[in-house]
Q: What sequence folds into this?
């Protein structure tokens, strides 16, 4: 007996609030966080976007947010085994991360325009998602984030002299990332030198009174696959999407020189839609330091 003849409502009979709601207007920004971050780091920017009349959806990539696993010694005295314990995220693939972005894009495709925003290492998942489903994306916005059009792995740029010459951030990683299965940091370190190095690398312009809260909201593990998996982009798919790069002018986690190199190499490899470039002052984390300015740059008002 069918659902209709049995008297049980079918999906066609009751399409539900999503399909029956009026069509939304304007642009929706799908926000993809970077390494060790989560959807909640976008909250101030989402409030600023809302004040500008823009909708947004922040994504938690697999293994991040409230689902982020912690090494067993994370909160124990002395953090035993913290630098050597195998990560619960060791087997997570970049395809899985990109799949979470594709699912988020599908959920908001009813908007007239969908802008996919990625920060830092989030550029890997976002770029692969756009390559897999370009019909779901109307604009790519890279906020100091990895662009794999010129070199296929984020690690290829992070090891370039344009990035390593500053020496900044070199002591933040714990243990052997390949053996652990993750690039691990310590958001609960009590070593003042370690905490200061993380602050200078990622958050140097965040007010001192709020830095500790941003720092301690980080997760310890970035899956090894995210910066090390090669991504093959094509002109016919990723390359056809209009794209914008928001440069962070005093960024030490992803230096201005490496940002410019990614832009130049992407435009050379994918010339059909060259980057529109906008700049913000300050650090790698404008969502923490200047969310109103970031929202204006995202919406094109900067």
A:
């Amino acid at each position: 007996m069918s659902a209709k003849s049995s008297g049980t409502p079918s999906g066609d009979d009751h399409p539900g609030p999503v399909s029956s709601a009026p069509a939304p207007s304007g642009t929706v920004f799908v926000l993809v966080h970077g390494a060790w971050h989560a959807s909640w780091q976008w909250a101030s920017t989402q409030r600023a976007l809302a004040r500008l009349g823009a909708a947004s959806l922040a994504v938690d990539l697999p293994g991040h947010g409230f689902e982020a696993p912690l090494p067993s010694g994370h909160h124990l005295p002395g953090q035993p085994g913290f630098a050597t314990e195998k990560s619960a995220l060791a087997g997570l693939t970049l395809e899985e991360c990109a799949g979470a972005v594709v699912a988020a894009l599908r959920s908001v495709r009813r908007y007239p325009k969908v802008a996919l925003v990625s920060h830092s290492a989030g550029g890997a998942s976002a770029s692969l998602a756009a390559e897999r489903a370009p019909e779901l994306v109307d604009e790519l916005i890279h906020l100091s984030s990895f662009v794999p059009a010129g070199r296929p792995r984020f690690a290829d740029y992070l090891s370039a002299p344009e990035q390593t010459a500053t020496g900044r951030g070199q002591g933040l990683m714990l243990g052997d990332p390949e053996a652990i299965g993750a690039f691990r940091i310590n958001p609960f370190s009590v070593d003042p030198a370690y905490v200061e190095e993380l602050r200078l690398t990622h958050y140097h312009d965040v007010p001192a009174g709020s830095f500790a809260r941003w720092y301690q909201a980080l997760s310890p593990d970035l899956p090894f696959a995210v910066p090390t998996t090669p991504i093959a982009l094509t002109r016919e798919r990723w390359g056809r999407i209009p794209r914008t790069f928001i440069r962070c002018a005093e960024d030490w986690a992803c230096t201005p020189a490496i940002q410019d190199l990614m832009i130049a190499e992407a435009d050379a490899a994918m010339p059909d839609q060259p980057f529109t470039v906008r700049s913000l002052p300050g650090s790698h984390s404008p969502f923490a330091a200047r969310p109103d300015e970031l929202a204006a740059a995202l919406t094109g008002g900067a």
Residues 1-19 have pLDDT under 50 and may be disordered. Strands lie at 27-32, 55-59, 113-119, 139-143, 182-184, 221-223, 243-248, 276-280. The CA atoms of residues 107 and 124 lie 20 Å apart. The chain is about 35% helix and 15% strand.
